[in-house]
Amino acid sequence: MNPLRIASLSVAVVVFSYAVMAQSSSQSVPDAPSPTQQPTTQAAPAASSPGQQSAPASERAFGGQEAPNAPAPQAAPGPQPTGPTVIFDTTMGQMICKLFDKQAPTAVANFVGLATGTKDWVDPATKQTEHGKPYYDGTTFHRVIPEFMIQGGDRLGTGEGDPGYSFKDEFDPDLNFDVAGRLAMANSGPNTNGSQFFITEAPYPSLDQHYVIFGQCDEHSVLVVQSIARVNRDGNDKPLEPVTLNKVTVVPAGQAAASGPTAKPNNP
Predict the structure, then answer these.
(1) Sign of the Cα pseudo-torsion (200, 206, 210, 216, in order)
(2) Among residues 240, 10, 264, 250, which one has the least CA distance to residue 114?
(3) Which CATH fold would you assign to the domain 85-251?
């Protein structure tokens, strides 16, 4: 065969091979799912995009689309809280939540201890150990996202504060984010629970078995959550005007939780 013809064929094969490789490397991978944690010491989950879950909650609105008229899905009966009741008095209204002392005993004991001052903690700003001082009074909700949740429990107000220790996760397979008003621990990964918490305003099943649920808030409280989540906020979802948690009151199990005077929640 003519040597020149052989050389031409060889060049053609090489060019074709490079073309195939170039075409293959230009293909993009599918969009990665949104991360479930913020890169801070303690964080509630990041809101997923609407296509990542079947729940009607998302960080963004639904673009004005209305769902067909249909009966609302009913969550399967799950565990009921039997522990103490917690009253959150905030500058935007009062929230009342009952705690799951059987499903998350460590988380409940930790929250009650911090709220009442019976548990020692390290001030993240001064690095001094505090004894007999309630942790949550005077803190703010530093991260709020409409149709998702509000997050608090950081004395620094940045999402990076903690009480100077952490404790392990407690998951109950029957206790999930299938209803609004779940009170749960924020974290920065497995077994990193501390003081930060969040309250959801809608079901959010993508969080199931990733964040320790230790309480359930009533319907009125969810309205307050919705109100707080819709204040003006910056690019980090931090309210431009602080929403303060003035006081946390713990009512022992079996006692009636008497709500006091409180500000009315704004309309969502």
Answers:
(1) positive
(2) 250
(3) Cyclophilin (2.40.100)
Q: How far is CA 85 from the centre of its chain?
A: 21
Q: Is 0.85 topped by the overall pTM?
A: no
DSSP per-residue letters across 104-172: -HHHHHHHHHHHHT-S-EE-TTT--EE-S--SSTTEE--EEETTTEEEE-BTTSSS----S--B-----
For CA atoms 117, 152, 90, 56, give the dihedral sign.
Answer: negative
- pLDDT range class, residue 257, cuts 50, 70, 90: confident
- What percentage of the chain reaches a pLDDT higher than 70? 67
Indicate the domain borders of the chain. Answer: 85-251
The answer to whether the beta carbons of residues 185 and 196 sit under 8 Å apart is: yes
Which sign, positive or negative, has the C-alpha torsion 188, 189, 193, 198?
positive
User: How many whole angstroms separate alpha carbon 261 and alpha carbon 33?
Assistant: 43
CB contact set of 167 (below 8 Å; sequence gap of 6+): 106, 107, 110, 191, 193, 194
* pLDDT tens per residue across span 143-194: 999 999 999 999 999 999 999 999 999 999 999 999 999 999 999 999 999 9
Instruction: Please state the length of the chain.
Output: 268
